TrEMBL record:
Organism: Halomonas organivorans
Superkingdom of origin: Bacteria
Any one GO molecular-function label of the UniProt entry: glycosyltransferase activity
Name of the featured protein: Glucosyl-3-phosphoglycerate synthase
EC number: 2.4.1.266
Enzyme class: transferase
InterPro entries named in the record: Nucleotide-diphossugar_trans (IPR029044)
Keywords, alphabetical: Glycosyltransferase, Transferase
Length: 405
């Protein structure tokens, strides 16, 4: 059970009483009359054949307050898209699948590319961006949530708690981030958040002072969680990173656009497990290796817009400062795990820290050598200014793809 502490930067919604799901959903059904709700599910086709998504869909089929479910489907041919339509057909809510590899959406992507507005690389960021555009085009909701499709411990209570702060008609929150402990099979997980992001933020604060942006990010209990909810209008003005820096990038964008009094986080679950990424120490293009590089670059880019000046010497100092802080945290995590009867492999933890430290330097070199890099997909506000009728045409393409027959 979480405590009731508020750190004063963003509001923290705790799970103090284990309020029954039925009571939460009854409230949300009432809220939905004023603030209809949509859910975005960014999915690879392979996840339809995995251990998590079938259960997630079964749980969503019982959610009484959702107006719409939008599934972004990546890496699917025609036969696989048809199979996905059958897979999601049991959802009673209005639902649409964005066939991102289909001819209709590929044609729109090519049109955006001609204008210099298309996502520059495939991945979750691109998938989420197109889903965000469709949610605006469909006009079915005033609140939208997003979560991953590989959550092994999913139950619909997580979604109810995620929606609640933003859907409540008398609350003024624009954005809500989910958090939870990463515990599974008796182990403490969440290495990138625990061993990279937290000590990196604290090392940056030690070097550059308590900048408001760093204080803001450090107040999130799990900044890399893939679960968040927001007013649909927020989607219009934020730029979404195309790489693995999606979660940090979204937090940065809402901080840029809104007062911290309009932002919050919520305790979603006592335990959470999903597909674990390999470290991929020998392959910088995948796994936690790639993730840590992209997150570091996202932080450097944001701090540069805050007036922070970086140099090769500064990145070497940052690496050393981070490394010492991360090693100290490993000891704290080890002791916490032991007290709670959990296991933690200190050797693998220290190897991960060594990789992350190396990647902080590598990301710094990339940042300094590529000042013209365009990591963000343009906001939908900009797309509408350049191609005013694109969103209605996207809606037509999605309707045609999802039509019976």
């Amino acid at each position: 059970m979480s405590d009731f502490h508020q750190n004063g930067i963003i509001t923290d919604f705790h799970n103090l009483t284990r309020r029954p799901l039925e009571a939460l959903e009854e409230d949300l059904v009432g809220f939905s009359k004023q603030r209809p709700m949509s859910l975005i599910l960014p999915s690879l086709f392979s996840e339809l054949e995995g251990p998590a998504l079938a259960h997630i869909v079964d749980e969503l089929a019982r959610v009484p307050y959702l107006s719409e479910v939008v599934i972004g489907l990546d890496r699917a041919d025609r036969a696989q898209f048809d199979k996905a339509r059958e897979f999601f057909a049991r959802l009673p809510q209005r639902h649409r699948i964005l066939w991102n590899d289909g001819p209709g959406l590929c044609a729109l992507d090519a049109e955006l590319e001609e204008q210099g507005l298309a996502p520059q690389q495939p991945g979750k960021g691109r998938n989420v961006w197109y889903c965000a555009g469709y949610v605006q085009a469909s006009g079915c909701s005033e609140v939208v949530a997003l979560h991953d499709c590989d959550i092994l411990t999913y139950d619909r209570g997580m979604l109810a708690r995620l929606f609640y702060p933003v859907a409540h008609p008398y609350f003024n929150y624009e954005f809500c981030k989910g958090y939870y402990p990463r515990i599974a099979e008796g182990r403490l997980n969440g290495r990138v958040s625990r061993l990279m992001v937290t000590p990196l933020l604290r090392a940056l604060k030690q070097m550059f002072g308590p900048l408001p942006y760093l204080e803001y990010l450090d107040c999130y209990r799990y900044p890399l969680s893939g679960e968040f909810a927001m007013r649909t209008e927020v989607l219009d003005g934020i730029r979404i990173p195309a790489d693995w820096g999606l979660e940090i990038g979204v937090l940065s964008e809402v901080h840029r656009n809104y007062s911290t009094r309009r932002l919050c986080q919520v305790d979603l679950a006592d335990a959470y497990d999903h597909k674990h990424q390999p470290v991929s120490a020998e392959d910088a293009s995948g796994g936690l290796n790639r993730m840590s590089l992209d997150i570091a670059k996202a932080l450097y880019r944001k701090l540069a817009t805050q007036g922070v000046t970086f140099s090769a010497e500064g990145f070497r100092t940052l690496k050393a400062t981070y490394y010492r802080m991360a090693l100290d945290l490993i000891e704290a995590y080890d002791h916490d795990a032991r007290m709670n009867g959990l296991s933690l492999d200190r050797h693998s933890e220290e190897r991960a820290v060594e990789l992350f430290a190396t990647n902080l330097l590598e990301a710094g070199g990339v940042f300094l050598d590529n000042p013209g890099e365009r990591p963000f997909i343009p906001s939908w506000n900009r797309v509408r200014a350049a191609i005013p009728d694109l969103l209605p045409r996207m809606a037509e393409v999605v309707e045609a793809d999802n039509a019976p027959g």
